[in-house]
Amino acid sequence: MAVDLIRYDLLVQEALRGTVRHVLSTVARDGLPGEHHFYISFRTKARGVRLSKRMRDRYPDEMTIVLQHQFWDLRVSEQAFEVGLSFQNISESLLIPFEAVTRFADPAVAFELQFLVEDERAEASQGGEAAGTEIHAKPEPAQPLPLLPEEQPVSKPSKPAAHAALKAAAPQGEPKVISIDTFRKKS
């Protein structure tokens, strides 16, 4: 297979981060609509993350926040978002660059995005790993995503699943998974 010199995987990652940026900007302006709420996981050691020492000690690698009922001062810029949250009745202000986000989910509509962060992308490209390694937000072993009928391989593909997976609600109420590989030309 040819080497991807355009790096479509990175372009798609940036486009999906743009989706998160747009959603958070809308919520900062208008508030959360209906039953929507978000689970956002991020790397606490990533460049640009601002977090209190207390929270960094408690979550040395990764943290998941929930934007639902009790958050305030949500501000969104091109590169990051800032939000106020309460942890055990102590107010905290967090600054999270979009590059640090590993997962964004809206359980109200069964929507989820997963991302590689900068250091994982470098490891994947330097270590000879395929650029499409899927990283889960929790440090548990990755569970394979179910394939759509049209994605069922006749033989194992040479590349692993794509960097980001989009889960949208299927008509039966179960998540429908659409991987980036769906859009790649099969050879």
Shape: globular
Unreliable parts:
127-174
Strand count: 9
- Lateral arrangement of strands in the main beta sheet: 2-1-6-7
How confident is the prediction overall: mean pLDDT? 75
What separation lies between the terminal Cα atoms?
Answer: 8 Å
Helix vs. strand class? alpha+beta
The CATH architecture name reads: Roll
Q: Provide the CATH top-level class.
A: Mainly Beta
Radius of gyration of CA atoms, rounded to a whole number: 17 Å
Helix fraction bin: 10-25%
Structure report:
It is built from three helices and nine strands; from the N terminus they run H-E-H-E-E-E-E-E-E-H-E-E. With 187 residues, the chain is of the alpha+beta class. The chain has a single domain, classed as SspB-like (SH3 type barrels). A hairpin with a 4-residue loop joins strand 6 and strand 7. About 26% of the residues have low confidence.
Question: Layout of SSEs?
Answer:
Elements: H1 8-30, E1 38-43, H2 53-58, E2 62-67, E3 71-76, E4 80-87, E5 90-97, E6 101-106, E7 111-114, H3 118-126, E8 165-169, E9 175-179
Antiparallel strand pairs: 1-2, 1-6, 3-4, 4-5, 6-7, 8-9
Which properties best describe this structure?
single chain; 187 residues; alpha+beta; SH3 type barrels; 4-stranded antiparallel β-sheet; 3 helices; 9 strands; 20% helix
How would you briefly describe this protein structure?
The chain has 187 residues and is an alpha+beta fold. Helix content is 20%, strand content 29%.
